[in-house]
Amino acid sequence: MTTIRDVADAAGVSIATVSRALHGLPRVSEATRQRVLAVAADLRYVASPSAASLASGQTMAIGVVAPFVNRWFFAAVVHSAEERLRPAGYDLLLYSLGTNAVERQRAFSGTLLHKRVDAVLVLGLQPTAEEVATLSAAGGPVGVVGFAVPGWCSVRIDEEGAARCAVRHLIDLGHRRIAFIGGEPEDPLLSALPADRLVGYRGELAAAGIPADRALETVGGFTVPGAMAAMERLLRLPDPPTAVFAASDEMAMGAIHVARHAGLRVPGDLSVVGIDDHEMSEMFDLTTVAQPVEAQGVLAAEMLLAALAEPDRPRPSVTVPTRLVVRGTTGRAG
Question: How far apart are the C-alpha atoms of 255 and 288, rounded to whole Å?
């Protein structure tokens, strides 16, 4: 069986150079890379991942830490990032934390990922200062989707601005009783996203001179069932809302289902707007503030690849744009 040493001897280079050439790593000239690839093909050599790791000092794996992987946003980001990383020779090691505080502590301590991955991608979780320090010290670049963290690559949207855009659309349509369905602002296992979107909701109401009514603010947990329960609570109010801003499209879909089941016309009796532009939003004819979800995964992956190739380069922080997409679930107040 052909070994990596056979390839190195035939190409006249070191074993480490063969490993770098086969895995597309830096510090190998294009001429040398092509020579190694030709020799490896000639000898029908198949690289061993463990041997490559030993020779190059790299694992050719990226760790992904997310609160959930079975929810659309996180799944879409992971998929798009993997589509960019796989051709570069990297596999993903996925850590889904759920609601387990111990798992979060393990992931952010650095010990779970140390020497197992070359870089880390954090999705939708805002790290504490201590978590930033420990994960950064574990070695390798770190990227984050959803926040800006000094020293880390980051991709995000303007969460507060997106929320204000959604609420402004409802205000422009004449609505004044506007409810908010969001997440748990104080839940440390998720992120500050629910709080940022709530701040945007309150801020836009205040800018329009509409008094805040805490009875119109309810928790949907970023799930369809949670939003259905939240919408039922809103409809039981003595003075129910004429419009709902849901902090995600999935929650908006849950709200629409309950409203229609209660005999309300959407948008005749109730207008609903979300955030995301979920893949099912067009089917629901849902008005939403669209964010480029897949593009964020690709951008984060490209930033990590660049940081791996040039460890000393500055870590970029990018805020991607959002846009209001008006469909059939919002209309003028009756």
Answer: 14
